[in-house]
Amino acid sequence: MPTKNPCNECGVSRRDLLRLGAGGLGLGLAGGLGPVPSVLAQASRRAAADSSGKILVVFEWFGGNDGLNTIVPYGDPSYYRHRPTIGIKEADVLKIDMQFGWHKSMSGTKNLYDEGKVAIVHGVGYDQPSFSHFTSMSFWHTAAPNSGNEYGWVGRTATSLDPTGARENLIVNISDSQTLAVRAEKHVPLVFSDPTKFQRGVFAQEKAVLDTLGAEVSPVGDAHRYVLEVTRSAAQASEVVRAAWSRYAEKANPDLRLLDLNKVVALIEADFPTTLYYVPLRGSLFDTHVNQAAPHDRQLQYCSDAIEGFFQEMQRIGRADDVVMYVHSEFGRRVPENTSLGTDHGTAQVNFVIGNAVKGGMYGTPPSLTELVLGDNLASTTDFRRVYATLIEDWLGTDAAAVLGQPFETLSFIEA
Amino acid sequence: MSVHPQWSPGPAAWQDDLSPLPQPEWNYDRAAHLLAHAGFGGTPDEIQALTELGLDRAVEQLVHYERVANPKLQPFVESGLWDPSLGAFPDSRPEATDRAEQSGASMGVTTKPSGNRPVQPVSDRFFYWLRATMLETRRLGYWWANRMLQTTHPVEQKMALLWHGHFATHENKVRDYRKMHQQIELFERGATGNVRELTIAVARNPAMLYFLDAQYNVKGAPNENFAREVMELFTMGVGNYTERDVRECARAFTGWYFDDLTFKVDPAKHDADAKTFLGRTGNFDGVDVLEIIFEQPITAEFLAAKVYRFLVRDELSAALQQKLGTVLRDADYELKPLLTAVFKSKDFYSQASYGGHIKGPVEHMVAMLKQLGAPTVPGVPDFNQSTIAMGQHLLNPPSVAGWAGGKTWITPGLLIARGNVARDVLIPDMTGFRDWNFSAGTDDVLGQRLRDGYDIGAATAVNDPANMTAFDRVALERDEKFNTRISGYIGWEQAARNLIPTPRDAARFDLTEMVLASGATTTAEAVDYLAARTLRVPAAKPTRDALVEFLTTELGTDSLDRAQTYMEDALRMTTHLLMSTPEYQIV
């Protein structure tokens, strides 16, 4: 059930609150929820001053999601020829049109689709695809298929948005270890997975010394330099993240199962200055080689419910207009089912772009199920960098060609 | 001795030079560098003993450890949670309960002939084993950590840890601690032997066979999972084979399977026809294709670089990688010659290798305990929880690619966790500690509700059981064949009843005694001694001065003689601060 936005009731939007700045209504409200650390106040001042308030959340589905069993081409008889056993029956499809429908576990995201907030992009991939999880994902992370880049596409977007690297915590990565996509030249991404553990355990008398560790140290080498940089980032960020989390955790709705997206909600609600959130799914069940039905149903349900819950939360805190979410995997799966009632690594996949700012509908050409390539695989119809370019240019408002190294034709899924 | 050993990184010109370090260049600091990289570091006494051996004998003793007695190692004692009825464990709970609904039994347990939730015993049994193998695997990790700490063969344990991350398999999927145990023993046995033989043994290892779906790789319907990973991750790296090679390789491995803990080949399911693989054609089986893979020069380079990155430093040049590959190939994939060459080389003692390695969490934890002279891995803090917080869960690597290592070990969150673990070891929270093996986590609330008299339906209601309507309850009791949420709780309870408890003792060491024995008399000397004992990269002067001031303030004097009756906790806090420095994270 959508929760009402208290700010709308008082006639002031969240964006307006941000613009009012530190002395305005925004912090007055936040202050009512508990003590606000001074750093947090600074953080929200920076957000108000430096950014348009627009946010991109990348929700990465590692493992190779079976796009054909996610947006199901139930109207195409060849789908059932390829998948006599594990094909999703027409009765189990939440229909979009005469051709396609959502897997029944995706009802949460379908609700958003029905509200016109979801772009489905068909046939997303790249030429000469890799069938390796790690290689293919590294291509997606660097936006450099069959090539490489020292920095990730999200990291390079950060550089484009803020060429001097002055904005702290521009990138947040909810993960146990840093995702290649966020590796950046100028910015140290804030990487954490458990906010409650994101805290130095310190006895009172130790505190003064702990705060100085790593200051005035000249590095002996590359590894040392890296640890020193992260030391500084950790010191300034941990207090802010924890404060945001504990205020969110107190009032979080226990019926919303948000996976790691709950940490993103907490930070957005605390007016964190982050523009780019990167959330790789942990404990993924998408690599469905064997007996795929039960685990795939479950994984889709978890992810879809998390997306719907996330946008309910954005609605509640009045930021739904400011956030676009992008969902992708590293590849789709082979068209014919295998003999283990599963599917093997494939090529083109289906992507989702979600948010109030998104023009809902289907984009890209659905790949043919009869003219398969590379051993029973879908021919990709949309280069994934076109989706990236659209997000970078039309949503974040920066130069996609500079980030991606070459121009890509954008899709039209962002509202003008 | 309070003398601060001189930090001795060799000149930059030594980098990439595999010629041996000249004997006169050998000293205490370089012995410390060797022990920190080849193993898990050690106490000043251990480093001194290595120094006195000289470079050649020191490396000989570390690499050819078979001649060194290893009296403290203990075999793993099982809790006895497994029985043969769990042998063909279903892949999923639906499979378990479907099997029972068809045949009336599953995993040695029958369904109820009548009454409510007739399939509940089967669902409970399924969760019992999930919990049991998970809990026993925690014990297995703790047991292995003790081996790493207590061994006199540090290179053996360090290399076993490497292979565990290289041939990565996780218990989450394997769901059988016995297979994980068998695999760890394989890595220990083959730690520094022939890596081709080790790879073949891994391909026949039941945990690996299960992990990469060997049972589904059969003639006429090959499953490519293992074939792909064996080339991409275990031997050659991506880009050195084609998709066709993957398919042909998968055919060669068809029919390989396991029966419980034993490797088997089913000739009926093996595709004995000709395959064309990496340019060769023949009726290859799995061993044949592995032999062909090991004939490729890239395989030697790939594996030698992997060993080097794990032991020495993250970055290595293409030229050095090629040289190391040649050493490994010339030795027909025997690892000892490679290790010997690396440990003796000028490159190993060059500037780039000093402070060039970020310690992995397990390595970090074991090294910490070694430096402190702790005889056993403590129970408080819990070993597994500590390394998980730092980003490494032994026996549960995140994917088949293992741990990426290097810089990925350090993020803001993980860095903070490292300092926190150091504090928990130095100043353990003995009264606040709660044993996670005897807590069902978020399911603890279910146990409480059952004991409070709620029935299963009410106890497993999402929110407040008191708010459930009578109608809902009746409907649940009537309609449910089983309730998986309660099984999650009951399974934990049943497993915990038989689980051997992990001793929850604090790490045993005495910093006061160590500092006084070093001859230190002032707080400055105490800090210098503790810094030299723990850090491989020296702390910057401002850090050192701040620590001296801290210790002096805590003790109320700079005289250790005056403070010796009460200085233990202040020394421990000083050590906690040292272990929280950026410098402590690297060797």
Which structural traits does this protein have?
heterodimer; A: 416 residues; alpha/beta; Alkaline Phosphatase, subunit A; nine-stranded mixed sheet; 12 strands; 12% strand; disordered N terminus; B: 587 residues; mainly alpha; two-stranded antiparallel sheet; 28 helices; 52% helix; 3% strand
Task: Give the helices and strands of chain A as they follow along the chain.
Answer: HHHHEEHEEHEHHEEHHHEHEEEEHH
Question: Would you tell me the structural class of the helices and strands of chain A?
Answer: alpha/beta
Strand tally of chain A, please? 12
CATH topology of chain A: Alkaline Phosphatase, subunit A
What is the percent of helical residues of chain B?
A: 40-55%
The number of helical elements of chain B comes to 28
What value does the average pLDDT of chain B take? Answer: 94
Biggest sheet strand order of chain B reads 1-2
Low-confidence segments of chain B, ≥5 residues, pLDDT <50? none
C-alpha termini separation of chain A: 29 Å
Number of strands of chain B: 6
What does this structure look like?
The complex is a heterodimer of chains A (416) and B (587). Chain A is 36% helix and 12% strand. With 416 residues, chain A is α/β, with parallel strands linked by helices. Chain A is globular. By secondary structure, chain B is mostly helical. Chain B has a two-stranded antiparallel ribbon. Among the domains of chain B are: 80-150 and 359-508, no CATH class; 511-585, no CATH class. Chain B is built from 28 helices and six strands. The longest helix of chain B has 31 residues, at 120-150.
Give a brief description.
The complex is a heterodimer of chains A (416) and B (587). Chain A has 416 residues and is of the alpha/beta class.
Sequence-ordered SSE layout with sheet pairings:
The complex is a heterodimer of chains A (416) and B (587).
Chain A: H1 6-9, H2 14-20, H3 25-31, H4 38-50, E1 55-60, E2 71-72, H5 77-82, E3 93-95, E4 101-103, H6 107-114, E5 118-125, H7 133-142, H8 153-161, E6 171-174, E7 190-192, H9 207-212, H10 222-251, H11 261-269, E8 276-280, H12 293-316, E9 323-328, E10 349-354, E11 361-363, E12 382-383, H13 384-395, H14 400-404
Parallel strand pairs in A: 1-8, 1-9, 5-11, 5-12, 6-7, 6-8
Antiparallel strand pairs in A: 2-4, 3-4, 5-10, 9-10
Chain B: H1 28-38, H2 44-53, H3 55-63, H4 93-103, E1 105-106, E2 109-110, H5 120-150, H6 154-166, H7 171-174, H8 177-189, H9 195-203, H10 206-211, H11 225-235, H12 243-252, E3 256-259, E4 262-265, E5 275-277, E6 280-282, H13 286-295, H14 297-311, H15 318-330, H16 335-344, H17 361-372, H18 383-389, H19 412-426, H20 444-451, H21 456-459, H22 470-479, H23 484-498, H24 511-517, H25 523-534, H26 541-555, H27 560-563, H28 568-579
Antiparallel strand pairs in B: 1-2, 3-4, 5-6
Helix pairs in contact in B: 1-2, 2-3, 3-16, 4-5, 5-8, 5-17, 5-23, 6-8, 9-13, 11-12, 12-13, 14-15, 17-19, 19-28, 25-26, 25-28, 26-28
